[in-house]
Each structure stands twice: as C-alpha cells, then as structure tokens.
Amino acid sequence: MLLMDVGSTKRDVVDAARRVLREKVAGFVPAHPVAGKERAGVEHAEAQLFDGRPVILTPCNQTAVDRVEQARALWTALGAEVRVMTAEAHDAAFAAVSHLPHLLSFAFFAGILHQPQARDFLALAGPGFRDFTRIAAGDPAMWRDILMANREEVLRQSGQFRAALSGLEQLLKSGDAAALAAVIHEVSLARSRWSMDAARGGSAGGR
Amino acid sequence: MLLMDVGSTKRDVVDAARRVLREKVAGFVPAHPVAGKERAGVEHAEAQLFDGRPVILTPCNQTAVDRVEQARALWTALGAEVRVMTAEAHDAAFAAVSHLPHLLSFAFFAGILHQPQARDFLALAGPGFRDFTRIAAGDPAMWRDILMANREEVLRQSGQFRAALSGLEQLLKSGDAAALAAVIHEVSLARSRWSMDAARGGSAGGR
Lengths: 207, 207
Description:
2 copies of one chain form a homodimer. In chain A, 58% of the residues lie in helices and 8% in strands. By secondary structure, chain A is an alpha/beta fold.
C-alpha cells in the first residue's frame, strides 16, 4: 500500500510515521504539493490545481524505492513536477523562503497594531504594504502548526535575518549611505534575477 | 510663486527649504504624491497616473494658506485625493507602512543571499516569497535616500518590529502554540479588515 501525506513540513511527519507505522513505514512517501488556495473545502476543488506545480517527495531510509516511483507517477499524472530531497533539506529550504517570511509578516503587522497610531498608519498604507503583508492573512491554525513543527529551522533563519537587519540598521546609524546603497543594489539585482528565473519556470512556487 | 517638491520624505525637505528659500518658504508647499511606477523616464509618462491616488501636503508654519489651497486645487485637478498633515506625522506614518517594510525586505533577501544554500533555497521560493520580496527590487539610489532621510523614524519602527518578532520567537521557543495562534489570528483578522477598507477606497496606497 502507498501512503502519503501532503503537509508543509516534513521532519515531524517522518518522525510520526516511523513511530506509528513501524515496519509499514516502507510504504509511506512523505509529500509536499506546493499548491493550494486561500479557500478550503471540496466546493473549491479545482482539477488543474497541480498543473505545473512542484511536489516535493522526502523519502527516508526505510521507504521502499518502488513506492517512491509510484508516488512520482501519481503526481506526474496530475500534472505536477516532482522533486526528491531529504526531509531535512526540505524543512531548511521552506523555513528560509516560506516560513520565515510568514513569521516576519506576522511580526511586522503586530508591531503596527500595537502602536497607538495604528489606525492613522494603516490609512496611509499602499501597494507595497499590501504585497508585503498578503501572507499575514494566512490561516492561524495552519501557520501555528507549520511554525511550531519547523521551529528549529525557523529560529535559525530568523537569526540569519536578524544579523542582516542589524547590519542595515548599523549603516543607517553611522550614516554610511554608500554601503547601504551597495546592499540594496545587490539585493535588488538578485531579486530581479530570481524573478526572471521564476518566469522561465526555473523556480518552484512554494507557499 | 507656488513651489512644490514630490519627495517621499518630508521633514528633510522642509528643513532644506527653510534653509535655502528663507522668507520665500511661504510659497513652498511640500507634497508627496503617493503614485509612481517601477520605470522612470518621460517615455513611461501616463496621463492617469494620479487618478484617485493620495497626495499628502505637509505645509509648515511659514507656508502661506493660499499657496496650500493652490496646491490642493492643482492636485485635485489631476484627479488626486489631497490630504494635509504635518511633515512629522507624514514621516512617522510612512516609516511604519512603507520604509520599514522595504528595510525588512532588503534584510530578508540579504539574509538568504549570504547563506551557502542560497541557490537551493531560491529555487524553491514561490508566490508568498514573490509578494514579500517584490519591494526588495526597488531602486537602490532612491531607497538609500529615503531610508537615510527618515532614518530616525525608520529605526524607531524597526525597534517596534524587533519587539514583536522577539515576542513571537519566544512563543516558538517555549512551545506556546495557543498564544502563537492568538497573535496570528489577531493579525490575520486585521489584515483582512485593512484589505476590505482599502478596496472601499478607505486606504491610501503608499509606496
């Protein structure tokens, strides 16, 4: 029997599967289909949901190779693009490009809300704010679970972020405009390059 | 004579105007049209650019009242919605809802780039990442100038953000899933409300 999950974190799922399935874990293929929408429920079902979307499979040592191939065939038939990696690599990457941005967006919005001028500030917020905080509207139960399940990697990534933020704050404090422009230039260039890669289908499309 | 600027920060402009214009500062009306696009240059001109967009006027004590009304009439004729506030209130609000998000997006992207697995991470980045980092592609010279000109307010807002982030990190460390969900719930609700207000035209649309 082929068993799969479709969760956004994988190490915790693999641990639970090992614990519960025991020797039957050979039939379990952890899967993360990187697709979905804001609205849940069967009435929002969509036949094309997985078309061209990445699905990450994270088999462990005990997973049977033919089950992985079966899972790959199933997702491929649904139109998805299958990638295989370790649960550890998966969780590290998604902490960096998905879970941390959510945490930062939650923290940023909370930081605004807790100021007395919150209403005045929000009345002046525009498109940049809208895009930056779109992910702050995520489902609370789902994001509680994802952040808790992957908290080690999320906290590690948060540390990387804090170091980068401190660096920029230091440049502001010391008035080093040239160094500040250099960092923004590097980032702006990398973001444009990423955007072009993503448009060419070189990028995945995680949550 | 009516003089105006169209910069994104206002206290530094008012200071410079006082210094340079001296008694002629009465004719100077500092303005921030909250509109624009990624591409600069007259070949990208657009007659509808200010349609329904907010324009903030920040007159100082010496500004002549009839000049403010002249400026208001001009921007209104261009289709903009004029608001008047102090330069201080303007800079505080835009630090919160525009300048800080840019700083955070720059820092977040720089934090990814400085890790050895940057390429692997970026290959898995999707729509959430795309929206969160869209503002990281901003023009380096312009953002250097904005962040430097408004650095006091930006650093103050960064402090508010850091406090909120530390709070969330603490919840992750202590495994307090219920409190984490409560914060996300509050933010998610406020973000949805903001979104509806913005759609009704209640919100401005800053950069």
